[in-house]
Amino acid sequence: MTKMQNFLKGLVKENPTLVLVLGTCPTLAISTSVVAAFGMGIAATVVLICSNMAISALRNTIPDRVRIPCYIVLVAGFVTVVELVMEAYAYSLYQSLGVYLALIVVNCIILGRAEMYANKHGVVDSAIDGLGMGLGFTLAICSMATIREILGAGSWCGIPIPWFHDNPIGILTIAPGGFFVFGCMIALVNKITKGKAIKKKEFGCMGCMLCEKGCGKEEKQ
Amino acid sequence: MKTIFFVILTAAITNNYVLVKFLGICPFLGVSKKLDQATGMSLAVIFVEVLAAAVTWPIYHLLLDGGIDFTYMETVVFILVIAALVQFVEIVLKKYVPSLHKALGVYLPLITTNCGVLGVTLNNITDGFNFRDSVLTALGCGLGFFLAMVIFSGVRSRVEEATPPKAFEGLPITLVSAAIVSLSFFGFAGILTNLFG
Q: Which of helix, strand or coil describes residue A156?
């Protein structure tokens, strides 16, 4: 796999949000405004690149049995850095992201990539994978925010859009709208790929390795 | 007494973590297929959320916020505390209450990365709750999760039998039905302030 393919797979073929269905919480919660969604995407991308690089560099040092706590601490460290930087230089964005910024720590995309990719590949490859996956997440959350903001609030990035501004569908900006739009987007992906993309991983929960372990056990019982 | 109910019900219903605030969606979608699994997961969540809130509150106010300001470390410290706590609970249950461990054991490791647990501890600090309200909010959130899981597993068992358009099969139709369940919770908005206010 060339570096370009490695980068592109995160954007389209293995898009973390729409195909692997990981990290659903921030996708649903932050996608009410495009600006906040973009900020969330970039924050997660930065954390993902840093954590992928650190984990890949330390992959021979971290003992296998305690790797999950080690990953969590590394990720939490990077999240704190991003949090402090954002609080200092982009305070309004920091406020609109609220608790979801800190919750990047438990985002399945980041732990999932650490377990599925970074602990088996080199530093450069892991960084590229992180960049691709992060941008794929940004792309997905921004397109969902675009739909919800235009139809629900009648604006895009805060700029009012003529006809939609007078006829907003308010429900799309609250929680039920989030579930609904996300469901429709995944149905669209299903339609385009003829159901091939998502079937191989049944649920978002399974994609994440911690859950995979638990759910696997559960099915055996 | 009135405030106790108010705090619990606010966290459980009007601010339901799953359906209103989108925290803990993964287990909500993943483990809600069967009622018994949904119940087991929810009980484990209630248990860990209450314990986590009771442990992180003193840590924040006595250690991180006492004397030297270490509050920026809250995310790192809290996730470590929760991970350790989950391990600890699992070991204790295995040794002393094997029956409970059998019922909850499978779900416990999953809870470390449940956004709900970290979310409720962080929110308790941001909202400036005292110790009692923090624990009560955590209890309420857990109960709210339980409520959402039970309702949703019922809805899902009906949805499984339906035949939606092909593209909507599986996850998409589940999300759309979650939207409808979530809508029902918005019906409670404002009811508590009218009841207790």
A: strand
- Å from B194 to nearest chain A CA? 22
pLDDT 10s digits, A46-75: 999 999 999 999 988 888 878 888 888 899
The residues, any chain, with a CB within 8 Å of residue B116's CB and separated by 6 or more, are B17, B18, B23, B24, B45, B49, B141, B145
* Beta carbons of B75 and A217 less than 8 Å apart: no
> Which tens digit of pLDDT belongs to each residue from A159-196?
887 887 778 888 888 888 889 999 999 888 888 877 66
The token duo for B79 is: 């996730």
Asked if B171's CB is within 8 angstroms of A21's CB, the reply is yes
**Shortest distance, CA B3 to any CA of chain A (angstroms):** 25
Separation between Cα atoms, residue B19 and residue B16, nearest integer Å: 6
Domain spans, chain B: 2-196
pTM: 0.85
What is the residue whose two structure tokens read 């980068």?
A7
Determine, for residues B167 and A195 on separate chains, whether the beta-carbon distance falls below 8 Å: yes
Q: What is the largest CA-CA distance in chain A?
A: 59
Q: How far is CA B140 from CA A80, A209, B1, B50, in A?
A: 28, 29, 15, 9
- CB burial string B75-90: b at 16+ within 10 A, e below: bbbbbebbbebbeebb
Confirm or reject contact between A85 and chain B (CB < 8 A): no
| Inter-chain CB proximity A204 and B29 less than 8 Å | yes
Residue of B nearest to A83 (CA): B72
Distance CA A203, CA B139 (A): 28
Closest-CA residue to B156 (of B42, B40, B43, B37): B37
Cβ B45 vs Cβ B16: under 8 Å = no
Select the residue of A79, A208, A215 nearest B75 (Cβ to Cβ).
A79
**Comparing A89-93, A172-176, A202-206, which segment has the lowest mean pLDDT?**
A202-206
* Type of residue numbered A39: G
Interface check for A112 against chain B (CB to CB < 8 A): the answer is no
| Cα separation, B24 vs B26, whole angstroms | 6
Query: Which amino acid is residue A96, in one-letter code?
Result: S
Q: Using CA atoms, how far apart are residues A140 and A156, in angstroms rounded to an integer?
A: 16
Q: Is residue A169 within 8 Å of A176, Cβ to Cβ?
A: no
